[in-house]
Predict the structure of DNA-binding transcriptional regulator, FrmR family.
Amino acid sequence: MIIMSEKVHSHQHHHHHHTKAVLNRLSRAIGHLESVKRMVEEEKDCSEVLIQLSAVIAALNNTGKVILKDHIEHCIVDAWDHGNEEAMENLHKAIDRFIK
Amino acid sequence: MIIMSEKVHSHQHHHHHHTKAVLNRLSRAIGHLESVKRMVEEEKDCSEVLIQLSAVIAALNNTGKVILKDHIEHCIVDAWDHGNEEAMENLHKAIDRFIK
Amino acid sequence: MIIMSEKVHSHQHHHHHHTKAVLNRLSRAIGHLESVKRMVEEEKDCSEVLIQLSAVIAALNNTGKVILKDHIEHCIVDAWDHGNEEAMENLHKAIDRFIK
Amino acid sequence: MIIMSEKVHSHQHHHHHHTKAVLNRLSRAIGHLESVKRMVEEEKDCSEVLIQLSAVIAALNNTGKVILKDHIEHCIVDAWDHGNEEAMENLHKAIDRFIK
């Protein structure tokens, strides 16, 4: 269930350099996760399922890093210069949730 | 790309207690990841995308723990008692890859 | 503050193969953490402090894996064969806390 | 072994808001790690050692988040406004290493 603030955020005005790359990564991760699901359905060895699941998690972590770096470099600096403190607060929340 | 040994492994003879729960978790994670992808397509705020991506990663981590605990309790102990050292080696490899 | 059950646990009868290696790893991590602390005192660049802190965290994670694998291979299998279900429950708790 | 560039970095001119808090956290983590080491010396139950080690790792992760957020808010924005791209590159390296 996704909770999203509908509030228009100045964020929409920033071009994201890595959107295409992020979308490709997410598509690959979805495909890989579907194949992990098939492994479980076919009762493949648990160690092999865990190794493939770890690969998906690592890929999603790397995708998150691409988003975070892109966001800091393009959205945060720009928002901060326009006095938009909310963008920094939202980034802090995202860092807290993303870094375990 | 999934590399899987076709070798018949005594593993197939162990009933997995949590297969249904694991399959449900993976289906939910796939659905959630598709919605994260839509958020990126719609250029939603990066912080919100990161928060939802973190939720998917956390869910997959928890799924891995269910598999790992089930595997240790049912497969490993049984395999070890039958002198199957390969099962323990595979578990070690899986632990190395799964725990970052 | 460490909360530890004083209950005698059959665990004490299992020889740990990796105790010396684990102790060396922990000593190195303590030394490395002290040097990270000095970096902060000397106001070194935050990125460099973060990189060194990540190295300590990675080293401690690897130490945890050594303990976990040693524990599964020597304590858990033995405890399970002696009908000691508590050892498995404690392992599950440790896996839940250790894998984020 | 700590590799640190001796290059004077504009970073020294930024006051860190959380230095005292970071130093306290690191001191506590060092103390906690020393007590984990004593647990291993006293052959305490591996599951309990793992739970305490996880607590140290979690504390260090949280310390890293405090440093990262402080760095983004005070050093990066300021460095970027002064055309110091190196600070952003160093932050990217730190994010890559810190987020596993």
Summary: The two ends of chain C are 21 Å apart (CA to CA). The domain at 26-98 of chain C is CATH 1.20.58.1000 (Methane Monooxygenase Hydroxylase; Chain G, domain 1). Chain C touches chain B at residues 61, 64-65, 68-69, 72-73, 76-77, 80-81, 88, 91-92, 95-96, 98-100 (CB under 8 Å).
